[in-house]
Amino acid sequence: MDMSTSAAPNLENKDAAAPASSADLDSARRVLDAEATALKALSESLGAPFLAALDILAATNGRVIISGMGKSGHVGHKIAATLASTGTPAFFVHPGEASHGDLGMITSDDTVFALSNSGETTELADLVAYAARFKIPLIGVTAAADSALARAASVILVLPEVAEACPMGLAPTTSTTMMLALGDALAVALLERRDFSPADFKALHPGGKLGQRLLKVSEIMHGGDELPLVTAEMAMSDVILTMTAKRFGCAGIVDGDGRLLGVITDGDLRRHMAETLLKSTAADVMTDGAQSIGSDALASEALAIMNELAITNLFVVDDGKPVGILHIHDCLRAGVA
């Protein structure tokens, strides 16, 4: 057989030289407008079923098992990832693989979240039957309120009846956009219900820019013996020795209770440069009220303060007492920007 006579359409270089036109932009805008309209309709359709689904997800002691076929499956992967990253344990199970052993991943403590625009996806049948057999809550998302999935689900979230953005009405476009947005809505509503904090978020996102943005001052500050602290009565000759030994180019001045009174920087030394400098005390030279930040603050906040004030060090103070010091290079080394 001559394989060169394939009946497949030849798309190679088709319209490769065609210039961009307003028709292309009109097509793109039509898609975006259609999907924006669909999302508005989805928002307006939310009600008791959404709240019921939220209650089930919030009460789940195990994991949320997302499943779907084709484009719905791709959306399911993203929903699972979003739930997991915002404090709701979740993972995706392919419906075909579920029928060949992966049902064993699902326990009676879990909740199944099934996506199917038609609600009649054959590959989901075994998963739906398994959920019913072991009394596992099943949340369904479909555009067909009278479908098999809708009849089997504990809670059904029905997508509004809107046309696909594809001009033939065939390619999943508007429907998958609504599924994706619905998953985001559930994930965010759940995290807000649970008071999911930035600290919780950082625990699940230690790497990359997210982890850097949520890094706390306490995680990168210098403390203990590294702190350049002196008393107000200390002679400047000893203060300079402390500043040199601690290598931050500054010294914090504390009172008898250990509270921060002020700071002496290299700039203060230059401004007070005279024969009497070494005979002065720290109180004579210091700048009152050192700029400080709390240990629970974000490192990005500390960096912003240092940039705004054109300073390179920031004392870390809790309850009025210095517990650490942060150099601008500590933030930069940690990737905070």
Strand order of the largest sheet: 2-1-3-4-5
Secondary-structure content class = alpha/beta
Stated plainly, the CATH topology of the largest domain is called Rossmann fold
Total number of strands: 12
Could you give me the name of the CATH homologous superfamily of the largest domain? Glucose-6-phosphate isomerase like protein, domain 1
* Spatial gap, N to C terminus: 63 Å
| Large-scale geometry | elongated
Please summarize the sheet with the most strands. Answer: 5 strands, parallel
Set down the secondary structure blueprint.
Layout: H1 22-45, H2 48-59, E1 64-68, H3 71-85, E2 90-92, H4 95-98, E3 111-115, H5 125-133, E4 138-142, H6 148-152, E5 155-158, H7 174-193, H8 198-204, H9 208-213, H10 217-220, E6 229-231, H11 236-246, E7 250-254, E8 260-265, H12 266-271, H13 282-285, E9 287-288, E10 292-293, H14 299-309, E11 313-318, E12 321-327, H15 328-333
Parallel strand pairs: 1-2, 1-3, 3-4, 4-5, 6-7, 10-11
Antiparallel strand pairs: 7-8, 8-9, 11-12
Short description:
The protein contains 15 helices and twelve strands. The protein has 337 residues and is α/β, with parallel strands linked by helices.
Would you write up a description of this structure?
The chain is an alpha/beta fold. It folds into two domains: 169 residues, Rossmann fold; 117 residues, CBS-domain. The chain contains 15 helices and twelve strands. A five-stranded parallel beta sheet has the order 2-1-3-4-5, sandwiched between helices. It has a four-stranded mixed beta sheet with strand order 6-7-8-9. Strands 10-11-12 form a three-stranded mixed beta sheet. Helix 14 links the parallel strand 10 and strand 11. Helix 1 crosses helix 7 and helix 3 runs parallel beside helix 7. The chain is elongated and about 90 Å long. The N terminus is likely disordered.
